[in-house]
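lol forgot to send this yesterday, sorry. struct tokens for the thing we talked abt
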């Protein structure tokens, strides 16, 4: 049978053809061929369970200004019963001319009791020191700073992120200043418990942008 981890995948990436949707659902699934086909048909028609691995979630929060490059990575979640109380980001400093800037390369969530989770991150830059919500509060919403695509220039994708804590405090990462912050996401009713990043893998000589977008998962317990 297919594993719970596979069944509980995050929302499928947007804009996939029917064939790519089939491949996306089938990846990592180990079951008899007939059963796999029935599962794929059911999944495309009726959706999927609202869980990632063993961790169930209540909703996904997103923003609309994410960068266009890259692919959605595998989501990662805090352990059952834990929520995010802080975060850190991976940032490459400005490279100057004729360097290739990638700005923010990753986001790491710090869950309760010392647990850390991250989805895929770019290869460049270094991790910042964590920023924390006040005691007893959790991360509940976010806003992303993204540089709009430019033709024949150095693109960077996502540059920075802000979070809002459940007590109202706002935390801004030590990212770069290219681009603009977009609107705030919808808030989680209780707290953020996982994330999924959209990252462009290294391309060699063409322009690299690394991290372009992110979505977060809300849990109630």
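and heres what i got for the seq, position by position
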């Amino acid at each position: 049978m297919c594993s719970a981890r596979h069944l509980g995948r995050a929302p499928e990436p947007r804009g996939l053809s029917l064939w790519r949707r089939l491949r996306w659902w089938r990846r990592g699934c180990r079951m008899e061929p007939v059963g796999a086909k029935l599962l794929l048909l059911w999944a495309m028609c009726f959706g999927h369970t609202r869980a990632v691995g063993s961790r169930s979630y209540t909703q996904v929060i997103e923003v609309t200004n994410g960068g266009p490059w890259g692919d959605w990575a595998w989501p990662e979640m805090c352990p059952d019963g834990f929520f995010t109380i802080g975060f850190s980001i991976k940032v490459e400093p400005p490279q100057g001319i004729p360097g290739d800037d990638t700005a923010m390369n990753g986001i790491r969530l710090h869950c309760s009791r010392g647990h850390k989770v991250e989805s895929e991150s770019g290869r460049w830059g270094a991790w910042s020191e964590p920023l924390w919500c006040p005691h007893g509060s959790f991360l509940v919403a976010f806003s992303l700073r993204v540089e709009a695509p430019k033709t024949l220039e150095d693109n960077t994708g996502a540059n920075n992120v802000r979070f809002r804590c459940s007590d109202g405090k706002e935390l801004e990462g030590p990212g770069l200043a290219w681009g603009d912050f977009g609107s705030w996401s919808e808030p989680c009713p209780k707290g953020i418990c996982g994330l999924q990043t959209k990252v462009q893998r290294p391309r060699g000589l063409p322009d690299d942008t690394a991290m372009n977008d992110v979505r977060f998962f809300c849990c109630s317990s």
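The helical segments are 4-7, 18-26, 33-46. anyway ping me if u want another try
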